[in-house]
């Protein structure tokens, strides 16, 4: 099953923007929570995105896979790091996570290819 992960992220961005407008206080709080989680010092941003990608797989959230695969690329994650993170997601989420791990790898590869093309 091939999905266009950059398109999923792009399509969800508009919908999330609408949610921000309709529930601004909730979304401000959510954004503050995200910043606090990403601002810690014990783990670097790349590691945190790999964790988020693994959780996205375990909870089976397509849009989360798209956003965190893109963020992993932006933070410099390697294919090998993504594969190890997917191994942990499969371990924690069993069979359904195998399917989402394959999709997360596909999403990472699409975002990596786009980032490489943009640098060229």
Polypeptide structure, described:
This protein is mainly α. The chain has a single domain (5-119), classed as AhpD-like (Up-down Bundle). It is built from 5 helices and no strands. It has helices spanning 5-22, 24-39, 45-59, 62-74, 79-119. The radius of gyration is 15 Å and the shape is globular. The two termini are 29 Å apart. The model has no long low-confidence stretch (mean pLDDT 90).
CATH domain class name:
Mainly Alpha
- Number of helices, counting only DSSP H or I runs of 4 residues or more: 5
The radius of gyration is: 15 Å
CATH superfamily: AhpD-like
Please estimate the helix content.
over 70%
CATH topology-level fold name: AhpD-like
Span of the ends, CA to CA: 29 Å
Low-confidence stretches: none
Short description, anyone?
The chain has helices at 5-22, 24-39, 45-59, 62-74, 79-119. With 120 residues, it is mostly helical. Helix 1 packs across helix 2, helix 1 crosses helix 4 and helix 4 packs across helix 5.
Would you spell out the secondary-structure blueprint of this structure?
Elements lengths: L4 H18 L1 H16 L5 H15 L2 H13 L4 H41 L1
Which terms summarize this structure?
120 residues, AhpD-like
């Amino acid at each position: 099953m091939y999905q266009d992960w950059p398109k999923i992220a792009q399509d969800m961005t508009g919908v999330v923007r609408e949610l921000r407008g309709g529930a601004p206080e909730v979304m401000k709080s959510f954004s503050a929570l995200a910043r606090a989680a990403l601002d810690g010092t014990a783990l670097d941003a790349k590691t945190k995105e790999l964790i988020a990608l693994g959780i996205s797989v375990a909870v089976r959230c397509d849009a989360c896979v798209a956003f965190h695969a893109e963020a992993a690329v932006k933070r410099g994650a390697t294919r090998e790091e993504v594969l190890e993170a997917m191994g942990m997601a499969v371990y924690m989420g069993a069979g359904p996570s195998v399917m989402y791990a394959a999709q997360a790898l596909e999403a990472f590869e699409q975002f990596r290819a786009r980032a490489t093309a943009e640098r060229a």
